[in-house]
Amino acid sequence: QVQLVESGGGLVQAGGSLRLSCAASGGTFSMYAMGWFRQAPGSEREFVAAIGWPFDTTYYTDSVKGRFTISRDNAKNTGYLQMNSLKPEDTAIYYCARFRGPNCSASGCYAPQNYNYWGQGTQVTVSS
C-alpha cells in the first residue's frame, strides 16, 4: 500500500516562499505521474500542478504559473512543490497524490479522480 506524507507547510507572509515535500513509501513512486492539489475552506479540491514520468513533463493551473515549481527526486521517492511569491488566496490545505499511470495528459492531470493515492495534507497559510 502506497503511503504519501506531505510536509513543509506553515504560516508565511504574502510574497514569501515555502517548499512542500511529499515522501512516498510502500510502493513504486518513480514510474508514476504525481500531482499537487489544494483545498480552501468551503471550496472544492482544485488542481495545482503535476509532473509526469519519465520526461518530467509539467502542468500548472493558471493561477500559479510562474510562481510555483513542481519537481521530483525519484531516488528519494519524494516530490516537491516550490511556492514563491505567495498570495493570501494560496491559503489552503495542500495534498500530494499519485496518478494512476506514468503520465497524464493536460486534461487528465486536472481530475482528482484520476489519482489513486493521496497524502493527508499540509496546511499553508499566507497572511496579508
Key words describing this protein structure:
seven-stranded mixed beta sheet, mainly beta, four-stranded antiparallel beta sheet, 1 helix, globular, single chain, 128 residues
Summing up helix and strand content along with how strands pair, one would put the structural category as mainly beta
Q: Strand count, sense and closure of the main sheet? A: 7 strands, mixed
Number of strands: 11
What sequence of helices (H) and strands (E) makes up the elements? EEEEEEEEEHEE
What is the terminal-to-terminal distance? 40 Å
Number of helices: 1
Give the overall silhouette: globular
Q: β content, as a range?
A: over 45%
Lay out the secondary structure.
Elements lengths: L2 E5 L2 E4 L4 E8 L8 E6 L6 E6 L6 E3 L7 E6 L4 E6 L8 E8 L6 H4 L5 E4 L3 E6 L1
Parallel strand pairs: 2-11
Antiparallel strand pairs: 1-3, 3-8, 4-5, 4-9, 5-6, 7-8, 9-10, 9-11
Task: Describe it.
The chain is mainly beta. A hairpin with a 4-residue loop joins strand 7 and strand 8 (78-83). The N and C termini lie far apart (40 Å). It contains 1 helix and 11 strands, in the order E-E-E-E-E-E-E-E-E-H-E-E. The longest helix has 4 residues, at 106-109. The radius of gyration is 13 Å and the shape is globular. The chain has one helix spanning 106-109; strands spanning 3-7, 10-13, 18-25, 34-39, 46-51, 58-60, 68-73, 78-83, 92-99, 115-118, 122-127.
